[in-house]
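> @MW can you paste both from yesterday?
MW: sure, first one:
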Amino acid sequence: MPPKTVLSVGQCRPDSAAIAHFLSTHFRANVLTADLPEAALKSLQNNVVDLVLINRQLDADGSSGLEILTTIRSGSTTADVPVMLVSNHAEWQQKAVEMGAVYGFGKAELNRPETRQKIAAVLEAP
């Protein structure tokens, strides 16, 4: 099976590195990054992406990750791409799920077994 590709959007540099390391170590995933919404959407247009991880609030400009989720869900070629919100706040996770995301995880939960299971459910699905 070829490696999966994950697009990580809006993380600060240390969190981006930690997420990329986690995904490459546990899932042999290729990780693409985007700092801003426009770059994320361009990356989705130009690559086959198996999972999108969106920071609740983008580090580069403070914009809302939920806005990117809305745009992804409304796109004809991106509507079915699995998306997870990266946030420690349960209420934001719930909002994202109501908008079509898969329940995500917080940065503080990155190395927990439950986080690996959540991501595996997407990346290791047939």
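MW: second:
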Amino acid sequence: MKMVDSETHNGLFTWDNKRGGNSQVTSKLDTLLISEKLMLTNTEIYASVLPFGGSNHWPIQLEIKGIDAPKNRPFKFENI
């Protein structure tokens, strides 16, 4: 199975060194791999970089539309 790096729609970088000015370094260190088979289906795949949360990495959110949820699957819960 071939994996493809999904491009993010709203950001080029997922990491920075938390320095300002000429000392600032940014890079795309974090990747989101999706199977090529999924990319070829009739689905809408949207990856976006979420707002900075205090770390030096920004999280990536993946949304996939067009995949049907399994039906007639019973809900199971164990009260432990």
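> thanks! Residues 3-65 form one domain.
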